[in-house]
Amino acid sequence: MAVGVFETVPLNLEEVALQPASLDIWDSKYRLKSQDGTPVDLTLSDTYRRVARALADVEEPAVREFWFGKFFWALEHGAIPAGRIISNAGAQEYKPSTSTINCTVSGTIEDSMVGILDKVREAGLTLKAGCGIGYEFSTLRPRGAFVAGAGASTSGPLSFMDIFDAMCRTVSSAGGRRGAQMASFDIAHPDIRDFVRAKREDGRLRQFNLSCLITDAFIRAVKENEDWDLVFPANSMEEKDPDCAKIYRPWPIQNGYRVDEQGRVACRVYTSIPARRLWDLIMRSTYDFAEPGFILIDRVNEMNNNWFCENIRSTNPCGEQPLPPYGACLLGSINLTRFVKNPFAVNATFDFPKFREVVAIFTRMMDNVVAIHGLPLDNQGDELARKRRHGMGFLGLGSCMVMLGMTYGDAASIRLTEDVARELAITGWQVGVELAKEKGPAPIMEELFEITPAMLAQRPQMARDGLALGDKVPGKVLLARYSRYLQQFPEKLREEIARSGCRFTHHSSIAPTGTISLSLANNASNGIEPSFSHKYSRNIIRQGRKTKEKVDVLSHELFCYRALINPNADPDAMETENRLPRQFIDTNDIDPRAHVDIQAAAQKWIDSSISKTINVASDYPFEKFKEIYLYAHEKGLKGCTTFRFNPAAFQGVLVKQEDLAATTYRFVLENGETIEVKGNENIEYDGEIHTAANLYDALKEGYYGKL
Questions:
Q1: pLDDT at residue 507, rounded to an integer
Q2: Buried/exposed code over 126-149 (b: 16+ C-beta within 10 A; e: otherwise)
Q3: For the segment 98-138, what is each residue's pLDDT rounded down to a tens digit?
Q4: Does pLDDT of 13 surpass 50?
């Protein structure tokens, strides 16, 4: 039989059971249990019934049973709400203080001790409820700046980030889930170099993901080899100092600073450095340590549906939800592998009619989550209720491609990605209009917004349509007619939004979906990613263990391939190359530019953002590595993150056995004796069995026994 070509046979994915690792994660993370550990959800179907019932009960009594049936059907056919919903919906009797919301962003951190500590308190309550949270720290004055009230200089933003890090480490997130935080930082802040280097110190800021807010101006300065100003708003003394160089630039806080007629803040220029020197510092850090990530913040704000009333400066911890101050958003993903008909066969196809049906039902389900959000802060709840943001995405894209006979990054796979994202978007917004007519639009749709000079400058079409300075226009019109994202939608749908509004302002984003992919999707590939490998290990936090636990898994496509095509395979061995279809590649075989192309194809139809990691080989050339980020900017992405295995830094969540086998870890005992072991070897230590790599990480990073 030729590689990659199979006869037309009836292949039924419904007959493929869940992997033991998948059931184990469902049991430990999503299965509802009483306080003494007795399961309340006896089966996975019970978990789906609990969630469907909680969301159907939001409906009017007369239609609750109808929607319960629809919701349960969708859950059994590929709709997977995010982990907070699966874990907490319908569970108030057992854990009343938890939230169904994954994504939040802090209120703006004001440059004062009271402002900072107030945000620490709010963040603690948010993390305790099980939500992730993002912050912008470049609103804080740089290290060494004078603080008039204290009569001393400040220790700078990084020192205050340490406080948030310690708080997150201390607060036990709901359900045993570790807290998740994002720290964003302006590329023009005087302490940007310290921010880039911050996590090189063992154990520091490990409760954070770090991302730079990259502007178009900075990219231009890099390309043109110009100097780059590092600035911060001038205080009252600096404004009066004629020798203090000042420029005006946009800033997230205006109160207390001098502001020009365009709304820009007077900033002191602390120093100027070659843009390429800063670029190389960031590139070297991401190459060696996988951080900081990039948030292409101008693109984020340009494409924001709420462009007329929001200035976004941060995201949720994984980057798929750019949010305004106190912004909140719920998540959910559709398992694309459930729509593959005749997988691995010559007549394999994607079932778009069924996909659209699931999207339509799931959109209503996710809208109902707003009613049971459980957010701990009034500001968060108000922001969610006003805009009703949700982020529907998909998972299993890479697995789906393999099952359809496509190679990740080829022309067919790029077309599939755009087709799936487009159908999800248009179907979702059509349902949003129907829900607005039935239940009322998001409140922001009916609010009136006064036209400002900045709005006219951003959207010249408004003046051509006869709108003038000072006119007041409903949010639904500003969104439907002037959102750059919605311009690609059918004119009829846009006019319906302008007339009736929509139930939400944002419908889609693509999350990383790590544990829901592994558990409820039977280890389908994460989010928009290809499969990391086809036999590999996941490092999982397990309550009661002192280090992360290594769990061996097969990719969804290999697991299904064995079940449907090659059931007699040795479970502990890998099929040789000539026994697997040619599309069974993993991240090592994919050009980084192909990752960007796939992300760009999806981003065209995703109205929020996409969490994606471009894995590159350990020996990938540094100069080529830098080109990935410029290509991402060129293709119009909103963000870019890479990962290169570097055992001297840390492992990451997903680990290939060949990387561990090729890495030697050195342990120094109390008596001075040194032992060397390979990363994949087991070590008995302190009453537990650990892999050498996980034990080394836990001791080096300081989290041994603290998981």
A1: 98
A2: bbbbbbbbbbbbbbbbbeebeeee
A3: 899 999 999 999 999 999 999 999 999 999 999 999 999 99
A4: yes
pLDDT at 153: 83
Over the chain, what is the mean pLDDT? 90
Residue owning tokens 């001393």: 152
Residue found by looking up tokens 């946009």 in the block: 250
Please state, in angstroms and rounded to a whole number, the distance separating the CA atoms of residues 182 and 164.
11
- Rounded (to 5) percent helix, strand, coil in the chain: 40, 20, 40
With beta carbons less than 8 A apart as the criterion, state whether 610 and 639 touch. Answer: yes
Query: Residue 213: CB partners within 8 Å, gap ≥ 6?
Result: 136, 138, 184, 185, 186, 187, 295, 297, 313
pLDDT score for 6? 42
Preceding amide of 443 cis, omega within 30 = no
DSSP of 109-139: --SSHHHHHHHHHHHHHHHHTT-EEEEE-TT
* Selection from 141, 136, 101 nearest residue 119 by Cα: 136
Proportion of the chain above pLDDT 90, given as a percent: 68
DSSP assignments along 445-479, one per residue: GT-EEE--HHHHHH-THHHHTT--TT-EEEHHHHH
Hey, what domains does the chain have and what are their CATH numbers?
103-315 (3.20.70.20), 447-500 (no CATH), 665-707 (no CATH)
Cα–Cα distances (Å) from 674 to 189, 195, 402, 698, in that order, read 44, 34, 45, 18
Q: Of the candidates 492, 498, 360, which has an alpha carbon nearest to the alpha carbon of residue 432?
A: 360
Long-range contact list for 660-664, CB < 8 A, 24+ apart?
660/537, 660/691, 660/693, 663/693
510 within 8 A of 394, measured Cβ to Cβ: yes
d(CA 194, CA 202): 15
- Tell me the HSE value of 671 on the side-chain side, using a 13 A CA sphere: 2
Q: Provide the 3-class DSSP secondary structure of residue 93.
A: coil
Condensed to tens digits (0 to 9), the pLDDT of residues 60-91 reads: 999 999 999 999 999 999 999 999 999 999 99
For the segment 389-407, the average pLDDT, to the nearest whole number, is 97
Cβ neighbours around 437 below 10 Å, total: 13
> What is the distance between the terminal CA atoms of the chain, rounded to a whole angstrom?
49
Q: What is the chain's Cα-based Rg?
A: 25
| CB contact at 8 A, 239 and 266 | yes
Give the pLDDT confidence score for residue 363 in this predicted structure.
98
Nearest to 421 by CA among 599, 234, 215: 599
Q: Is 593 exposed, middle or buried (0-12, 13-18, 19+ CB in 10 A)?
A: middle
Whether the CB-CB separation of 401 and 407 falls below 8 Å is answered with yes
Mean pLDDT is lowest, of 224-228, 364-368, 520-524, 685-689, for 685-689
Average pLDDT over residues 22-41: 92
Indicate the pairing of strand 664-668 with strand 642-644.
Answer: unpaired
Is the Cβ–Cβ distance between 161 and 205 less than 8 Å? yes
Question: Rounded CA gap, 358 and 572, in Å?
Answer: 36
Distance CA 162, CA 652 (A): 22
